[in-house]
Design goal:
Blueprint: H1 5-16, H2 18-35, E1 68-70, H3 76-79, E2 82-84, E3 99-101, E4 128-130, E5 141-148, E6 157-162, E7 168-172, E8 182-184, H4 192-197, H5 204-211, E9 217-219, E10 228-230, E11 232-233, E12 240-242, E13 250-259, E14 265-275, E15 281-285, E16 289-292, H6 308-313, E17 368-370, H7 373-376, E18 380-382
Antiparallel strand pairs: 1-2, 3-4, 5-6, 5-8, 6-7, 9-16, 10-13, 10-16, 11-12, 13-14, 14-15, 17-18
Length: 387
């Protein structure tokens, strides 16, 4: 009551923003409990960017309560709307030199001849394609300018600036990455100053402590086993192709290496085994790229659009059930009432939709023939069966 007016306004403003700060702190705490990793090594510089999170261990089975933003049901479209809390995203337009408009037939699911090859696509809001760097060949430190929303993918992107040249580029943001962070890429090789600090010899422990920070890109043979990575490549000279969606990650399972007499490990093979988000265990090149951390926007899977119009804004058209169509539109159509039609599920073109439909290049084992009515009462059978 006896405070100055300026101080009183600051106190009121801080009290008003307290709930959002608490929500953000709870979200960050749950994220760290789920994704954060190993204890920081003593060799890591305390003032280094990202030193608070040097490596990432595999996420535990702990259930994390999603922190979503809900709305008062002022309209029917807001009643069921749920969105992730991403208050750190950039509110303005993208960096236009790295974008180009998405126009033409590609938005309608059509190929170069104008025929629909992907169903249920069309319409949608106007978009600009963001040119994202999936190679990360540029060495040296890059400063994160801001974290942006990308309408063309589920994860967020980060606008980074190369310190040496001032060149800007987009990369897939890691979970927890914020403006002001410094990330590097060691895909072109280890810098000479880092090599000299290790005595001219690569020490795997010191190298991991100094390079395995959130958002850094490294060849897979330089990443310790058990580290959580995303933006994983497949070839030595190729871009990142795996684990690029929101909240996805891969785990480095093993390397083809042998232990020498002095206890050091040396790569002897050409591949590194990684476990992808789908559970697939895959061999990729040891020189393929990977980024430390987890792809951003981990709460994307819990969102609810709330109304059909938001699907249309996302370029998604309605999907109609086959049993709701007429018989001339779909094999499941027709009949009186909600009729199943006594037929195995098939696509609109008659291809079986369930298991068991396999084809061969030289001999089609699923080709059906109709035998004469007087022999088999008009029933269809496989041509491979004996007459």
């Amino acid at each position: 009551m006896f405070l100055q007016p300026q101080v009183r306004s600051l106190v009121q403003r801080g009290a008003a923003s307290l709930p959002s700060l608490c929500q953000r702190a709870a979200l960050q705490l749950s994220t760290l409990r789920r994704y954060s990793a190993a204890v920081q090594s003593d060799a890591t510089p305390k003032d280094a960017p990202g030193a608070d999170l040097p490596t990432f261990a595999a996420p535990s089975s702990e259930i994390v309560t999603p922190q979503m933003r809900t709305y008062k049901p002022r309209t029917p479209g807001l009643r069921h709307l749920k969105r992730p809390i991403n208050d750190h995203l950039w509110k303005g337009r993208p960096y236009l030199p790295l974008t180009f408009p998405k126009k033409g037939q590609s938005k309608g699911g059509r190929n170069n001849s104008g025929r629909i090859t992907v169903r249920h696509r069309g319409g949608g809001a106007k978009r600009r394609i963001r040119t994202v760097d999936f190679h990360r060949w540029a060495p040296g430190p890059h400063t994160v300018d801001r974290i942006e929303y990308d309408p063309n993918r589920s994860s967020h992107i980060a606008l980074v600036t190369e310190v040496a040249t001032g060149k800007k580029s987009y990369i897939i943001a890691a979970e927890g990455m914020r403006a002001g962070d410094v990330v590097q890429s060691y895909r072109s090789g280890i810098p000479q100053d880092l090599l000299d600090s290790m005595g001219g010899v690569i020490d795997p422990g010191i190298l991991a402590a100094k390079t395995c920070w959130r958002g850094n890109c490294l060849p897979l043979h330089l990443i310790p086993v058990g580290t959580v990575v995303y933006n994983v490549g497949s070839r030595a000279d190729g871009p990142a192709v795996f684990c690029r969606s929101a909240g996805t990650y891969a785990v480095v399972v093993s390397k083809e290496e042998e232990t020498r007499d002095d206890g050091t490990k040396v790569m002897t093979g050409k591949h590194v085994v990684v476990r992808l988000q789908s559970g697939e265990v895959r061999k990729v090149s040891k020189d393929a790229c990977a980024t430390i951390g987890v792809a951003s926007n981990i709460m994307h899977q819990f969102r609810q659009l709330g109304k059909a119009g938001r699907s249309r804004l996302l370029n998604i058209r309605p999907t109609v059930r086959g049993v709701a169509m007429n018989s001339n539109d779909h094999p499941h159509g027709g009949g009186r009432g909600k009729s199943k039609g006594n037929r195995h599920p098939v696509s609109p073109w008659g291809q079986p939709a369930k298991g068991g439909f396999k084809t061969r290049k030289k001999h089609n084992i699923n080709k059906w023939v109709v035998v004469p009515r007087e022999r088999n009462f008009g029933k269809r059978r496989d041509k491979n069966t004996s007459s």
